[in-house]
Amino acid sequence: MLAMWVKVRIKPDQRKRFLEAIEADALGSERDEPGCYRFNVLQDAQDPNVYFFYEVYKDQAALEAHRAMPHYAVWRAAADTLDGPTEATRCTTIFPSPPAYWTAKR
Hints:
This protein is α+β, with helices and mostly antiparallel strands.
């Protein structure tokens, strides 16, 4: 399993466009990708221009499939809403550990 935290800073005047694009990607990922187990978007409580994505994929192949999806293309087309590069941290899931937790669609 592959988990990621992605941190982005947005241009304040581009918030609406950013939110529309990342919502399309997050919802499409969980809805349309069997290998995407989680895609959450969070806003920093101290800085409203900083967002975090928490993503969990079955494996590297699922992440690569994610990057080929139409909803990912919507997100990439809005890359100019960002104020600097993305910061991605790859993680390994520890808890919950049962595979059924991750594969059950909520």
